[in-house]
């Protein structure tokens, strides 16, 4: 029985009051799970304006027909909107309850380089200015101070999200690889720089040991259900173990893809979305059964969108504005933002209608409740009700 189950059992026995339960649950740790769709997902065929004449002209072979979508909303600019039917498992699990779609995300002077643009998304920059720190690191280090605190973990090899962070951030491609890993000792030295390096090494070693020892006591067999046994499912399984063990790591980063569909997109993209939808639906269902869905916010992101005009190879090239998902027990469901025009393109690209840093503002202020977060200048009124306050 987990801590929540124990408290509820005590209430049933008359040993704990409902008020005490509410206070206890309010102290539960919050997790932000960031799912990077590597290579850049095609947002236009994820949330499709399936009745738009312009969409049909731009996508003569890649367009989605009415039997390939799940209608979810309407845009005054492009008409009815539908999610790709390959996301059906995800829709069945929580559409209308705890899943939001944010459309038109982008930034000024877009960069179409994979490396450069993902660095901008992960630090909060744009084509006009470059930032040198991960977009969420300031908030994490201010709200969760203290030594031996683990601020963020990536389940992949990429550490760009935590760039120049002064907290403790570590990359764990596979949690099982930590078995036998021992903490590093502090070397005696009077050199301040060497002392700092030794302290950082010790912090990372201790963080790795803490994760390993905690998860050894919370094996995958304790989970109420299992995500798929594939790269994304395996990462989500490890995240569920971290949450189940109540290991206080505020940000968990995963990767899925590649979505770089320059050719043969029709079948590759369907397979990717199906895998994404199935795994995220199992993840949310499992956390609901664990009683932890209200403590988790899942957000997808990637470096850019795909070009609106399909290419001659049955694919799409690097583009601009994109659509992303926000999920969790405290998410107000629906479609947010304004869909970009498909008739006012620049070099066959849609123009973004919502600065993606406005989403970062909502995450920092509404999810982490950071009163000093740095993304307030990009606040978007369209996103004001995206995340509910704790009840």
Automatic annotation (TrEMBL):
Signal peptide feature range: 1-23
Query: What keywords does the record list, in alphabetical order?
Result: Signal
Matching entries from InterPro entries are given as: DUF1501
Q: Entry's Pfam families?
A: DUF1501
Task: State what protein this is by name.
Answer: DUF1501 domain-containing protein
Presence of the UniProt keyword Endoplasmic reticulum in the record? no
